[in-house]
Design brief:
about 40% helix; 2-enoyl-CoA Hydratase, Chain A, domain 1; 7-stranded antiparallel sheet; 3 domains; Pdz3 Domain; alpha+beta; single chain; 6-stranded mixed sheet
Length: about 675
């Protein structure tokens, strides 16, 4: 995933209203009415807030690292990336001017001096205003799509342009590359030009609307990110919106968003919501366009403010919204996928654990297996603290286990795929359903003190053969549970390496430290204060949980997972806790792996997955793209042909999906887990 969000504002889709799309002429007129030369200066409270945050970071953030020249340079570079990640606005001469701040930001923060951040931002705003005029001129000229030339869209590590002609040429190719992408996706050339013009004028409008608090938040989050990717400063407005979003019942598509590199990006899929039910949207997918109803016009949202995008997406229950999505694992030249979603109120019961049975035939024998899917680790659903109808993950799973046992299941699969975590206590209590007693997780605080969280209940609700399914989206509490099951030898972990978030955050209301005034409100700080460790002493941070049996999947740690964040806390170890393993399953793993490898070698679905992985890495290694329309159409046609042939082959292999009850093409990973579990049962017996 790309490094950091340029606007660290997470919002939930909810409530009502639709934003009316503005014409390009409207945008240009409105932008011209804003004073583009207005210099933004910090508010009177900002120096005190900056100094307070600096002190809190150095004393209470988990790293406990003092601000020094080395850290100052990292903050400086992070801030520049947030403004100009692809190095398309600043020139080398601008960077040479800014370099005087590189080693001074540490001292400035301690003294409350935030002026360097405002000087850099004001320069950026001025350059952007000039650049938009040049973009208009280039778009007026149009492009020659028959020329053989190339563009490298990823300029994150490239050198800054040293001359105006060099930068103008980069922009000509960038605009041509973007226009070509729109044409390949079905737009006529004039419409593609209009879309780009509107896109950059809207981005210009966004920057022109920044006030002192917006700039302060942008800079302070550059400071916070230097310590940890989950440490965040919330402005007063965003702090209030965060609290409201966390407390309201949700009505919309059921996802949370942020902005990364001008793209509205999915941060979290809410279990039970329309997005989750569709199965077509994943974390880190990018929303590039939004349309209303069945026939509404597509509105390009690249470069939009997050709250404007939310206004387009949220709406009344039962209404249709269409999204154009670029999947996180798509190659750079892939067209966006259109997804229809009916807005709905997210029901809490839809987020609850659910059970079913599947029948698997292995080695000539039939096996009835239970499957419990856990979307998240929840607590206190459906009742008050005093009521006995309170729902929680562990309570619900206990009931599901009792029900599955009456059906005489021979083995159990716990499905934690896409489970981003939740309640730590529920992860501990859920583990307790499968082990006698003992430690489940260790937590080391910022002071170095280690607390061991135990399962005190010696009762085991289910003691039969079990497996836990995980993937790259399984995080936090999911990693605590699956790690404990693995360490105790209680079950076999299968799937993909998990996300690797092994840290704990706490929200600090800065109003408790700094007095608030009617005209200048005070925000809050989310601070990383502790790390999780498994009972073996191994951290779940960065590495996550590595399955006993790995399934083929696209999982590039350089672009996804905790380790993709440069400031992520490192993996490390502490002393192991004292625990008694349930059993030792290591002797079974080689045989299970051998049977698994032999089975998927002849499985058409896994063959397609392997092909997708090869194609993904081949495309990821591609650094430059042709700007010739004919060549790009031929490349697109070749990929489309492969997809059509695959679809025909799949239909030939499975002509009647209605007769298929074992999820053969719907969920090959779950079906394969059933076979692995059947092998495990045979080996144990």
């Amino acid at each position: 995933m790309k490094k950091a969000s340029s606007l660290l504002f997470v919002v939930f889709f909810s409530l009502l209203s639709i934003l009316n799309a503005q014409t390009t002429a409207d945008l240009i007129k409105r932008n011209s009415e804003i004073d583009t030369n207005k210099v933004i200066l910090p508010w009177a409270k900002h120096p005190q807030i900056a100094e307070t945050i600096a002190r809190l970071l150095t004393r209470y953030e988990y790293r406990r690292e003092s601000l020094n020249d080395s850290l100052s340079e990292v903050i400086y570079n992070t801030y520049l990336k947030r403004l100009d990640n692809q190095r398309m606005y600043f020139m080398q001469k601008d960077i040479d001017d800014f370099n005087k701040y590189k080693d001074e930001l540490d001292d400035d923060l301690y003294s409350g001096n935030v002026m360097p951040a405002y000087k850099i931002f004001n320069r950026f705003k001025k350059i952007l205003t000039q650049r938009v005029k040049l973009i208009d001129k280039q778009l007026d000229k149009g492009f020659d799509f028959t020329k053989d030339e190339y563009f490298s869209p990823d300029r994150e590590e490239s050198s800054y342009a040293t001359t105006e002609p060099e930068l103008n040429e980069l922009w000509r190719k960038k605009l041509k590359y973007e226009a070509l992408g729109l044409i390949l996706n079905g737009k006529k050339e004039d419409k593609a030009i209009e879309t780009l013009r509107k896109r950059y004028h809207r981005f210009h409008k966004l920057i022109l609307q920044y006030d002192a608090e917006d700039v302060f938040q942008l800079f302070m989050n550059s400071v916070c990110y230097t310590y940890d990717p989950h440490t965040t400063y919330f402005s007063p407005k965003d702090s209030e919106n965060f609290k409201i979003g966390m407390s309201l019942s949700l009505e919309g598509i059921g996802a949370s968003l942020t902005v990364k590199d001008d793209y509205t990006t999915i941060v979290r899929i809410i279990p039970g919501g329309p997005a989750a039910r569709s199965g077509k949207i994943k974390v880190d997918d990018k929303i590039v366009a939004v349309a209303q109803g069945k026939s509404g016009e597509w509105v390009d949202v690249i470069g939009w403010r997050i709250d404007d995008v939310v206004q387009l997406i949220r709406g009344k229950k039962g209404t249709l919204v269409r999204l154009q999505i670029i999947h996180a694992d798509a190659d750079p030249d892939s067209p966006p996928v259109e997804i229809d979603l009916v807005r709905d109120k997210i029901k809490l019961e839809d987020q609850a654990a659910k059970a079913k049975t599947i029948n698997i035939k292995e080695s000539g024998k039939e096996f009835k297996l239970g499957v419990i899917t856990i979307p998240e680790f929840y607590t206190n659903f459906g009742g008050s603290n005093k009521g006995k109808d309170i729902s929680s993950t562990s309570k619900d799973v206990r009931k599901l286990l009792d029900s599955l046992k009456t059906e005489k299941i021979q083995g159990l699969i716990i499905d934690l795929r896409n489970d981003g975590g939740g309640s730590l206590q529920e992860a501990i209590q859920l583990t307790g359903l499968f082990i006698k007693n003992g430690p489940v997780v260790q937590i080391r605080s910022v002071t170095g003190k280690v607390d061991v969280e135990d399962d005190p209940d010696p009762a085991i609700v289910y003691d039969g053969p079990m497996m836990v399914m995980v993937n790259k989206y399984s995080a936090s509490a999911s990693e605590i549970f699956s790690g404990a099951i693995q360490d105790y030898g209680r079950g076999v972990i299968v799937g993909g390496q998990t996300y690797g978030k092994g840290t704990v955050q706490n929200m600090i209301d800065l109003r408790r430290i700094i007095p608030e005034t009617p005209d200048q409100k005070i925000g809050s700080l989310k601070l990383t204060i502790a790390k999780f460790y498994r009972v073996t002493g191994s951290s779940t941070q960065e590495k996550g949980v590595i399955p006993d049996i790995k399934y083929p999947a696209i999982h590039d740690p350089k672009v996804f997972g905790e380790v993709a964040n440069p400031s992520a806390l490192p993996w490390d170890t502490i002393a192991p806790a004292q625990f008694v393993p349930f059993s030792n399953l290591k002797g079974f793993i080689p045989k299970l792996e051998k049977e698994h490898d032999a089975r998927i070698k002849n499985n058409s679905e896994f063959k397609y997955i392997e092909e997708d992985i090869k194609e993904y890495y081949a495309n990821k290694s591609k650094t430059k793209f042709s700007l010739n329309l004919k060549i790009r159409k031929e490349e697109r046609a070749k990929r489309d042909k492969i997809k059509k042939e695959r679809k025909k082959e799949r239909e030939k292999l499975h002509p009647d999906d209605k007769k298929k009850k074992d999820l053969k093409t719907d969920d090959p990973f779950l079906e394969e887990t059933g076979h692995v579990l059947a092998d495990f049962i045979i080996l144990q017996s």
